[in-house]
Amino acid sequence: MAINHLFSTLQLGPIELANRIVVAPMCQYSAVDGVATDWHLQHLMQLGYSGAGLVMVEATAVQRHGRITHGCLGLYNDDCQMALSRVIASARRWAGPTKFGIQLAHAGRKASCNVPWQRHGHSLAADEDPWPTVSPSALPFAADWHTPVELSRSGIQKVREAFVAAARRAVQIGFDVIELHGTHGYLGHQFLSPLSNHRTDEYGGSLENRMRFSLEIAASVRAAIPDSAALGVRITGTDWVDGGWMPEDAVALARSLKAIGVNYVCVSSGGLVPHAKIPVGPDYQVPLAAKVKRETGLATRAVGMIWTPQRAEQIIAAGDADMIAMARAFLDDPRWGWHAADQLGATVHCPPQYQRARADLWPPARR
Ligand SMILES: Cc1cc2nc3c(=O)[nH]c(=O)nc-3n(C[C@H](O)[C@H](O)[C@H](O)COP(=O)(O)O)c2cc1C
Asked: DSSP label at 245?
């Protein structure tokens, strides 16, 4: 029988994933003041038995003002923690070996926005309860967006403490994986890229200085969470803009993250400035992930328009990535993992309530 790479187990630091399929973090814009609702319950329960080895919970704000929109999930107070605990406990109950991770985030200058289905891509207007935004420099994302306040040193420290506090809450909830959001133009990325970071102190200028914010947060979170939890970072492979963040920078960042005990990176790209020309197409970010993996040896997740089981299998088999994350494919088909297993001759967990739909678990003779 052919070796099945996509459905082989993966040791990700302290945890073992049942396979290499990851449900990518996806904002649902369905929280109320940062608190998860029944939408999250149904969303994460069904993805828990999707056949993926790891389900990532959406970008979750570590500070209230770090939310992208009024509907974004948060983990900055007890109400947020209690609601998310209930959701994850329910999802875990039927998820078999599937692990759960959470992406901790701060939107920086891209906070205080409308949800995508209401005036997509616009800052909140004066009558939409906007809030002040922060960034390494007072540079707006685009001309008609809020101008952020430049973060002071004490502001930077507060953000770092908020990441640590949220990570501790995530561990109490029982997440196996903590992921820090460092791409798509949000706060970590704003510090990394010379296009959005014009600081002249130790957090700006050289690559080393621009990486300081992300590395300090990663090191503080690593020190605060138990060894039994895996830590990852979603990084930017490139800004797709001359003079911006480059693939070589991503390699340098991944190397430094590895040195402080980060267990994996997910390599995405773009989102920092609106005028970037992104060559969107099948697998378009895979070469970025492959470069980071090859040059650092760190476990790497590829993402971005990898939609077929065969392609996902080929990417893992070629050694271009260790995991494949998929977002929209799982919205379209929440049992993507089952159908991939059927096509590649593998088996996945299926909760007993649904086993009559699976020929391998409930053969036709018993139906
Ligand atoms: C509805 C939706 C919400 C998303 N929210 C997040 C998010 O919370 N954090 C993040 O890093 N990326 C987010 N993304 C980006 C995805 O994780 C993924 O990188 C992107 O959709 C490309 O993968 P795909 O082609 O498999 O959809 C989101 C994408 C979608 C479609």
From this structure: -
Mutate to test the pocket of ligand 1, among 110, 286, 328 (most ligand atoms within 8 A of CB): 328
Q: Which atom of ligand 1 is nearest to the CA of 328?
A: 27
Ligand 1: centre distance to CA 55 (Å): 13
The answer to whether the pTM exceeds 0.85 is yes
List pLDDT tens digits, range 89-113. Answer: 999 999 999 999 999 999 999 999 9
CATH class for the region spanning 10-366: alpha beta
Nearest CA to ligand 1 atom 3: 26
Q: How far apart are CA 176 and CA 128, in angstroms?
A: 36
Give CA 328 to chain center in angstroms: 14
Ligand 1 touching residue 189 (CB < 6 A): no
User: Which residues on adjacent β-strands are paired with residue 105?
Assistant: 61
pLDDT in tens, 124-172: 999 999 999 999 999 999 999 999 999 999 999 999 999 999 999 999 9
* Pairing assessment for the beta strands 15-17 and 10-12 based on DSSP bridges: antiparallel
